[in-house]
Amino acid sequence: MTDLPRIPLAGVIGHPIAHSRSPQLHGHWLSRYGIKGHYIPMDVAADDLPAALAMLPKLGFVGVNVTIPHKTSVLKLAEVVTDRAALIGAANTLTFRKDGKIHADNTDGVGFMANLRQLAPHWQAAQGPAAVFGAGGAARAVIAALIESGTPEIRIANRTRQRAEGLQADFGGRLVVYDWLHAGDMLEGAALVINATSLGMSGKPDLRLPLDLLKAGTIATDLVYTPLITPFLTDAQSRGAHIVDGLGMLLHQAAPGFERWFGQRPQVDDNTRAAVLGI
Ligand code: NAP
Question: Mind listing the pLDDT tens digit for each residue in 167-221?
Fold first, then answer.
């Protein structure tokens, strides 16, 4: 009997998982590069997570993306955790290493930064403060990336102020916490404004904050990408801001995992966007 090479499998685990666009994205890259491999969405309940992670490598999986609600709990199940995943307190990319160890990484921050650099290439961290709405898992990743990029001041406001203060305690002095009721004040002199809440997503209320202090030319970006152009981005654009939608972050955060698992650095371009948008 001939020993056929094993076809690499990867996927995404979450609960629920039907909404995930990752299968379309990885499926597009697999066919674009002619790679024999598969990427599968898997609905895994929290109680089943340890057993699923123990079994997947035995079934031929080389790694998985991780989404809500497992991003934090997978850290305890991984033997090797990158510094950035540890700092953020969550992982979105697991690699099943040949030595049997699970390697956990968080690529949301690099995805955010790569999207910004692609769609707002004139942005430079030293230009001025960044203002961040939200203090959840995605905000943590964005803030870690902003700090690494050298952003001089990061202003943050969150509905639950305590959570923003928790970020300040973890990330240090460059963070300034604003009250949610005065979140619009953060825009004064800001070079970059980021919605990292889930507000504005289809089915959720809009992010309703006064953008009066937003100056023309400021970069405004939203992590929400359904819809692609959120009401926040529409409002910011009407005030002369340069807007960057959140889809590119999703695409760029996926690239390191694809490269690790399938051995090819994938391109993020208009074709990739179209494939994920189904157009
Ligand atoms: P999360 O940890 O659940 O945090 C949600 C954030 O939204 C918190 O700051 C929360 O404030 C705020 N929020 C929710 N409902 C609110 C309301 N009614 N009023 C005011 N604030 C509200 O979620 P996450 O993982 O950080 O994700 C946040 C968003 O980013 C989601 O829409 C997610 O899809 C998106 N995301 C996009 C990408 C991408 O690649 N583009 C990557 C990651 C995440 P409290 O703390 O007060 O609850």
Answer: 999 999 899 999 999 999 999 999 999 999 999 999 999 999 999 999 999 999 9
Which one is catalytic: 71, 76, 98, 215?
Answer: 71
What CA–CA distance (Å, rounded) separates 44 from 51?
Answer: 10
Assess whether 71 carries a catalytic annotation: yes
What is the CA(141)–ligand 1 centre distance, in A?
12
Interval 123-149: pLDDT, tens: 999 999 999 999 999 999 999 999 999
Asked whether the beta carbons of 176 and 155 are under 8 A apart, the reply is yes
> What Cα–Cα distance (Å) separates residue 212 from each residue in 8, 100, 101, 197?
51, 54, 51, 20
User: Does residue 257 have its Cβ closer than 6 Å to ligand 1?
Assistant: no
As assigned by CATH, the class of the 9-106+250-277 domain is: alpha beta
The region that residue 211 occupies, defined by phi over 0 for left and psi between -120 and 50 for alpha, beta otherwise, is alpha
Q: Whose CA is closest to atom 37 on ligand 1?
A: 223
Domain boundaries, the chain: 9-106+250-277, 109-245
Structure tokens at 142: 């964005």
220 within ligand 1 shell (Cβ under 6 A): no
Q: Which is more confident, 19 or 105?
A: 105
Q: Alpha carbon 162 to chain centroid distance?
A: 23
Q: What is the CATH topology of the domain spanning 109-245?
A: Rossmann fold (3.40.50)
